[in-house]
Amino acid sequence: MGERAAVSTEDTLVRYDNPVLVTKQPEKVSAPPTGTLAQPCIPTEAKRETEEILNAILPPKEWEEDGQIWTQKISSTPATRLDVINLQEMLDTRLQQRQARETGICPVRRQLYTQCFDELIRQVTINCGERGLLLLRVRDEARITMEAYQTLYCSSIAFGMRKALQSEQGKSDLMDQVAKLEVERSALEKQCTELKQKTEQLERRAAELRAAEEKRHQEELLALKKTNAQLKAQLEGIIAPKK
Predict the structure, then answer these.
(1) What are the residues facing 61 on neighbouring strands?
(2) Contact, 9 vs 16, CB < 8 A?
(3) Nearest to 76 by CA among 53, 96, 99
(4) Could you tell me if 60 and 139 are in contact, meaning their C-beta atoms sit under 8 angstroms apart?
(5) Which residue windows are coiled coil (predicted)?
(6) Distant-in-sequence, close-in-space partners of 217: CB < 8 Å, separation ≥ 6
(7) Beta strands per DSSP E along the chain
(8) CA 219 centroid distance within chain
(9) Which of 116, 121, 145, 109 is nearest to 53 (CA)?
(10) From the centroid of its chain, how far is CA 62?
């Protein structure tokens, strides 16, 4: 059995006519699913034009089952006030049954409201084809805008992911650089400590040398003073007898 390519009328809010069998076997006579033979009718020019507009707005559905092709067109029956009330009740019921979210992005809620809008377009088109075509433009424009927002959303997510990966990579590089700088800082601190020790050693050595030099200078000064005193005493001893 082939799988149906279209959604059944029970799963959509749009009103369709009964399915029509397009058989592949001319010798096999098949009856419509309702069990009644379709009576031929000649639609008026206005009705034919309305059906053409409806088929252009909402194309007929086709699927294959048991080797036979079925087709189902959009209904051209005008909607009454009761139909509109039932449509609203069906919309609320489907939203609850399928647990659609009331806020945020929800594909289920969007699908149901799209079906509801298509049904409203169908109802309006039957009364005024031009108004239905204008609503079709509004629907297509809203769909294009939504698709553009979805594309922008997906691209923004991809951009955010790339930026996150780049930031993670940059963070890893910065961590490596920090570790490298820490090693360099430790080496410089060690070198600084060694230089301080050498400086202290040099300062102590210089102080010792300066103290030794001062001591030697004092000793030489004392020796020179002593020698000077001796020479002075000798000179006075030589000069005194002459007087």
Answers:
(1) 72
(2) yes
(3) 53
(4) no
(5) 171-234
(6) none
(7) 20-22, 61-65, 68-72
(8) 90
(9) 121
(10) 38
Distance CA 75, CA 183 (A): 80
Two structure tokens written together for 222: 């004392």
Beta bridge partners of 62: 71
Helix 129-242 crosses helix 107-127 at what angle (to 10 degrees)? 140
pTM value?
A: 0.54
Which pairing describes strands 20-22 and 68-72: parallel, antiparallel, or unpaired? antiparallel
Residue length of the chain: 243
Its sign, for the CA torsion 99, 102, 107, 109, is positive
Q: What is the pLDDT of residues 57-69, one digit of tens each?
A: 888 888 888 878 8
Q: What is the pLDDT of residues 134-159, one digit of tens each?
A: 998 998 999 999 889 889 988 998 88
**118 within 8 A of 157, measured Cβ to Cβ:** no
Angstrom distance (rounded) from CA 86 to CA 72: 22
Assign 41 to helix, strand or coil.
coil
Going by their DSSP bridges, the two strands 20-22 and 61-65 should be labelled as unpaired
Q: Model confidence over 79-104: pLDDT tens digits?
A: 889 988 999 999 999 999 988 888 87
pLDDT confidence bin for 197, thresholds 50/70/90: very high
Among candidate residues 73, 31, 67, the one with its CA nearest the CA of residue 52: 73
